[in-house]
């Protein structure tokens, strides 16, 4: 059976393509989902895609991934820098976790340099634009097939 992967996007990422395109590019979240779905099929992964502007929704999605998913790709948006609750939820998940940021957060404001999620992530991707999601999927494919 194909390993199931959950991609999770946090607040404001529903506006991808319209929101600060100089930083986040012109691709929409639907474009990202379509690209990832095609790649996942090639890699033999079963992909689920989720976005929420609400911390609790993201936490519920992480809980639902427990026992059903082998890996999570998460771009928690601004919650990256603030949410102990999302870190705690990820710590209940036993599969692989890749943290993904479209922009290079380390080149930006100081408050974006700290990530709670990085304390749990098995890998971190930042600054590769929306291509980062595909890089994360490729890495998970390697990890889940051992
Ligand atoms: C982001 C970086 C965060 O600092 C920001 O709050 C976002 C998007 C990124 O993908 O580059 O919403 O996670």
From TrEMBL:
UniProt-listed Enzyme Commission number(s): 4.2.1.10
Residues noted as binding substrate in the record, renumbered to the chain: 75, 81, 88, 102-103, 112
EC class (word): lyase
GO BP terms in the entry: amino acid biosynthetic process; aromatic amino acid family biosynthetic process; chorismate biosynthetic process; quinate catabolic process
Transmembrane segments: none
Superkingdom per UniProt: Bacteria
PROSITE patterns: DEHYDROQUINASE_II
Keywords from the named record: Amino-acid biosynthesis, Aromatic amino acid biosynthesis, Lyase
MF annotations from Gene Ontology: 3-dehydroquinate dehydratase activity
InterPro entries per UniProt: DHquinase_II, DHquinase_II_CS, DHquinase_II_sf
Catalytic activity from the UniProt record: 3-dehydroquinate = 3-dehydroshikimate + H2O
Site (Transition state stabilizer): 19
Pathways per UniProt: Metabolic intermediate biosynthesis; chorismate biosynthesis; chorismate from D-erythrose 4-phosphate and phosphoenolpyruvate: step 3/7
Active site per database record: 24, 101
Subunit details: Homododecamer.
The protein's role, per its UniProt record: Catalyzes a trans-dehydration via an enolate intermediate.
Family: Belongs to the type-II 3-dehydroquinase family.
Protein name per the record: 3-dehydroquinate dehydratase
Gene of this entry: aroQ
